Amino acid sequence: MSDTIRVVVVDDHALVRAGVKAEIVDHFAVVGEADDVEGAIDVIAGTRPDVVLLDVHIPGGNAPAVIAGVRAAEVETTFLALSVSDAAEDVIAVIRAGARGYVTKAIAGDDLVAAIRRVASGDAVFSPRLAGFVLDAFAGDIPTAQVDSDFDQLTAREQEVLRLLARGYTYKEVGRRLNISVKTVESHASSVLRKLQLSNRHELSRWASDRRIV
């Protein structure tokens, strides 16, 4: 069955898409790609693939927005999230939206091929750590509604800044990692604190830790 599985790759970085396609092209038919929400919905609706490899944070929205748009277009396909993020709120939000699995971009090529085959056949696929997030959420140990509503009010860039600051990076280090100025980092940090009604970085780190965002 593997040689007939049709795949669409959605990621906002061309190099990532090229790398993913290089890893899977000998095993599956890559029938399309996209780099934002609107483009993803159009490509998926036009090609009707068996599996969509879907990045979590892309221009125009996020992975749940793509899934919702595809469902609204009455297209049946299976979504496998492929993201650099291993944060609990990202995993939970995408699975609640309807994805069948979630793997990180650290996954080996052979393992990615196996994951695509598994979700195409109806299995759910997670790494052990990410599976734990999902189990905890359904057990009620993670307040998913609160995490979603609080975190989703932040822009994608603010979410990136939040994670790095909560992990202890300085403004300068955050700016270097995200390729933005220190002044821009400070602006994003102030916005995050205001939206989350927090007073300082210590409260921010505790907020993120309590919600398993870092």
What's the topology here?
Blueprint: E1 6-10, H1 14-24, E2 29-34, H2 37-47, E3 51-54, E4 57-58, E5 61-62, H3 63-72, E6 78-83, H4 88-97, E7 101-104, H5 109-120, E8 125-126, H6 128-139, H7 144-152, H8 156-166, H9 171-178, H10 182-196, H11 201-210
Parallel strand pairs: 1-2, 1-3, 3-6, 6-7, 7-8
Antiparallel strand pairs: 4-5
Helix pairs in contact: 2-3, 3-4, 4-6, 8-10, 8-11, 9-10
Low-confidence stretches: none
Shape: elongated
Cα end-to-end separation: 38 Å
Look up the CATH topology of the largest domain: Rossmann fold
* Second CATH tier, the architecture of the largest domain: 3-Layer(aba) Sandwich
For the record, what is the CATH homologous superfamily label of the largest domain? Response regulator
Assign the CATH class of the largest domain. Answer: Alpha Beta
Provide a descriptive summary of the structure in words.
This protein is of the alpha/beta class and 214 residues long. It has 2 domains: 2-139, Rossmann fold (3-Layer(aba) Sandwich), CATH 3.40.50.2300; 153-210, Arc Repressor Mutant, subunit A (Orthogonal Bundle), CATH 1.10.10. The protein is 56% helix and 14% strand. The chain has helices at 14-24, 37-47, 63-72, 88-97, 109-120, 128-139, 144-152, 156-166, 171-178, 182-196, 201-210, and strands at residues 6-10, 29-34, 51-54, 57-58, 61-62, 78-83, 101-104, 125-126. A 6-stranded parallel beta sheet has the order 2-1-3-6-7-8, with helices on both faces. Strands 4-5 form a two-stranded antiparallel sheet. Strand 1 (6-10), helix 1 and strand 2 (29-34) form a beta-alpha-beta unit. The termini are far apart. The mean pLDDT is 85.
